[in-house]
Specification:
Number of strands: 0
Number of helices: 2
Shape: elongated
Largest sheet: none
Helix content: over 70%
Order of helices and strands: HH
Number of domains: 1
């Protein structure tokens, strides 16, 4: 199961990366209300990639656990 978690993580990572980059950018817009700087494209994408890896791994692990539970229920 461990190998399939990493394969699923790699497959889902681009989607998680994009979602996190958008979230980081919008969070920086909200932060501008209290005087924080608004992040540009490159910092948002870089920070999004950093945040996306553990988030995507946790999501992939959860999906693999659900698939394993479903397979056990078929027998």
């Amino acid at each position: 199961m461990n190998g399939s978690v990493w394969r699923l993580t790699l497959a889902l990572f681009p989607f998680g990366w994009g979602a996190m980059a958008v979230n980081v950018f919008f969070a920086s817009l909200i932060g501008s209300w209290v005087g924080l700087p608004v992040l540009g494209t490159l910092p948002s994408v870089a920070l999004g990639a950093l945040i996306a890896l553990p988030g995507t791994w946790a999501f992939a692990r959860h999906i693999c656990q659900l698939m394993q539970r479903a397979e056990e229920g078929e027998e």
